[in-house]
Amino acid sequence: MHEMEPNHIAPWVAWPVLKRSCDSALQGAFEERNWPIVISLAKQRYKSTKDPYYLAIEVAGRSQCDNPSDRTAGRDAVLKLVADSSTIVKDVDALGLYEFSCYGAKLSYSETIGALRSRLVKAKPKDWASSSQCLMACIYNSDWLHAQEITASMEKNFPAEKRCRIQNLFTTHMYSQTPACPVGSRELLAKLAKLRGDKEFESRGLSKTSDDRSAPLSLTASEAWLWIELQSGPQTPLTDKIAAFQKHALRLLSSGLNNTFVEILLALEKLKAWSSVSEICGQVVDKAIDVSQREASLVERKRAEILQHKQTQKEISEKKQGEGDTGPAQSPAGTSGQDLSDNKDPLAAKDSEDQAKLEAYKAVRGQRSDQDKAYLMLAMDPLVWNSLINSASEKENYSQTLKQLRKSLDKLMKALVRSGEAKDLDQSRYDRVHLRILFLRDAQSAPEPETTSSTRVEHLLEYILKYHWSVACFEDVRKFAEALNPEELQMFARKLGREALKEGETKDGDKYKSLTLVAILLQIRFLAATSTRDSTVCKYCRSKLDNSGCISCLTSIVKVALENYNAGMRDDNLRYNILPKTNGDPLSDLAMVGSISLLNLAIIRRSPGYTACSPLHLADIQYILQAIIWLDSYLTAWPKNNPLRMLLLKLYLLIGCVSRAKSLWAQFDIKNAILDSLGPLFYDRISTIAPGLFGPGASIRRNPLRPFIDYYSKALRSTIPKQTVEAFKGGNWHTIPSMYEFGEGLKKSCTLVMAVVEERRGLRFKAGHALTSIAEDPLVCNLNPDHELKDMTDYSYLPNFGSKDSTPTEVLVSQGPMLSSTRAHLSLLTERLVDLIDYAQPKDFKPSKQGHVLSLDCEYVIETTEALRLHMQGLMAKRERLTGPEVHYYSIASMIAKLVSEFFQLYVSHTPTPESGASIDSSIKEVLSVLEEQTTDLLMVPANYHSELRAFHGFVGMHAMGMLRESIFLTKLTVGYLTSALDKTKTSGRAPANNNETSRAVSQLKSMSAAATASAAEIKSRIKTMKQLVEGGGWIDRLRDWAFTNHAQHDPQREDRELIAEALNVAVDDAAFERWAGTVVDSWQELMNGWSAVKIE
User: Fold this and answer.
1) In 404, 546, 776, 922, which residue has its Cα 20 to 30 A from 295's Cα atom?
2) Does 735 map to a domain?
3) How far is CA 193 from the centre of its chain?
4) What is the DSSP string of 1005-1072?
5) Domain extent at residue 764
6) Could you tell me if residue 76 is inside a domain?
7) Do the domain assignments include residue 700?
8) Phi/psi of residue 295, each to 5°?
């Protein structure tokens, strides 16, 4: 009953400060953490005063002692207090000490401390200070059940405190949304919150019945958010929701609550209330047009006044000057002086008019009301424009509606230009909205063969020519390019190609523009080349599609990209004078789209070779190396592109150049919250690839995953709880659910599990054993396979030009399947198995009833291993989310869980089933078979690796070697554990009566150990060979051969391959290639030095 809720991570508890009424001796001992003295003095004070506060001090002191019986004092005391409903701790400080004393114990806060705090508030309902303190403690610990009970009590007992009403509304709503609330109570609580909310907000001006829209609103943005939340629940009929939102949306906007209006707009879109969306957004636009037109007239009038005033001032000044002068000096040239003055007048007049207009703008804007500001701000927000488009496209006569919408938006823009407001508008967003309207309205059939133009093509081309310089240009037009039919796509490519050619070849052309247009064209062609859904032929060139896309187009993209890249690199003016001053970088874009095309041509498939040693098992290694060389060459010359750097980082990890990848990773300077979303891009599976990163000395603080652990611990156990309390105190209700959801997301993040498991594995590689127990890790100890974990990785850092149905870049360049709940839970279950069979009782533990202890241990082992086996078998059904080496490892773990359970039943508890002996034989054979298969897979060189390339296979197979080492470790650990169990049965007198059974068991365990030793010898031999190889010479020539020499006997793409290699040789000169080769070899040497320090068995 009192066990901790699943997936609950308890926040840190603040160190308590004793009351001032405590004598200095007791306070001093507590501050100095002299617990024996604290316990003794607390007992004495309680004996003399009978104040329960001193009992709490004693319990707190005992809970900090090393004695196991004392350490559970807090837990035992709290459980006793909870069990006796008549016992109430009325001292809030004493309750704080009890909370401190059971910190770390596996208790449900809500069922223990939270319940006691609620009892205290009910017992002392008029004690504001105690009630507030208990409320904040419950919120700090996410105990919304008792937070709601406490706020209900406070609202009742402090009716003059208006904040208590809102606090009670919020906690009721919040509790109804949490998993802790019983399903049957959620609807009831939601209805209660809605009814009470209607009453509260009606007094603030949000009447549900009155039509008086002139009544003033008296609520904050956060309270308005709460009103929306209460209206949005399932307890409110759909028509009532829509009516309430539509009725008050503009009133809230007029009150300056812009974000509230946006939230209502999003809620209406979610409800598909398109008529309401159209009405309120239309009114916003109409109102903004009226405001802009009125202000434009005021600006023109004000400008005229300013000019007239300046003219008058000038005439007065000239008149005074004329009266004071004796007469103008005669110029020798007669009227030449007058001519010079006349030449200056047009410029001076223009400057004067511009200045007058600017002053007029400022004057008019200064008089603008908050309501007008709100309408103008929303009317210029693309969210409103797109909402209007969404609602228009849902109508039957959508084409005509969209046409009218475009006229309305054009009218808005003209009014904004007249009023001077348009200068604050992002014109590209407005143009994209027009493009979207056009594509929706003009979704035409394919043009006739003789047609040379298309409205959609012309407008898309116009947009690209206008915004080609923007780094987001391709992403802005991606969805429009996808919507083009094959005929339009070909027409568009021809027109854009001609524009690029015109800029690139003419004398007065713009080289930068030419290259950006080529890059965008190639990105769009790549988009079409990888669109394999609903078609067997390429959308662009009509060639037959391969699994990875159109080989013909991908090859063409690489060649064109290299040609233009080389031309750009030869242009010193472009590189040193133009690119440093621009945001976009067409050379980087060309390198990326070309390299990703090479990766697709390399056919990095996930099947059928995917389950073997490496994802490069069936890949064309020449294309892989060419992509890496190209990207590295440009990043070295121009190191400012993050997507390119991330892509290169992933490729280096794929070929085992971990130190080079690490140096690229360090340049991102990723810390804290971003670790959760970006960390897996580098650290996923890192312990099995490069265990050398985890050292020296296997220190728990000196490993690359420690920043993750520190971040999760601080965020979940301190930062988020504190921020939630501060938000509650400040009435910022709208921020609390997002913080709560963020915290829950971290708790269920695959990255969290990855960090914990990778750290354990990495340290185990160096230490040879597990250093900490997974059951004692507060971050994951309460996770179980019923929790669905989420991959929170942000893959947008990688460039992705492909279509929705193509293989994403992150899949192309990863070591295996992405993070998943399946893999995370399998890794945790296996770590629990490791903890179980790696556990050794303290040497000083000598129980008097050794046989009884052994019996209890045996029962626990059988129960635990059986549960682990069942969970693992269920998860292994989803093995497509694992690499081949991981499938082997987790299969062995599952078999070992079964083996340990059956072994204990037969040889330790002597409660075998009729099949126990045969089942043990079968389990051992299966373990040995999978271990042999895993070893064979590691050593097997793919048939497509020619003899000169076989050395490369070792460097790309590090993950497989790391997982084999884990399998060896687990097998050896199992042998030692079961052998120890047999020894204990002998010393306790519980050994099998038949010595043949024991001898047979020992023989079976020896066979397992021998197999693990043989596999370990293969790894040691491989490490030694690879270390010697990488320390030898000839690597520059060897890498050049791998990257540029075609060893295939019959290659249908031989000519294209040679052209690509030749162009890349031009792009990367000998000096650059030698530098790159040296970096690769140095990285491989560091990798193998790290592996040399690993304890293989």
Assistant:
1) 404
2) yes
3) 34
4) HHHHHHHHHHHHHHHHHHHHHHHHHHTSS-HHHHHHHHHH----SS-TTHHHHHHHHHHHHHHS-HHH
5) 671-794
6) no
7) yes
8) -70, -35
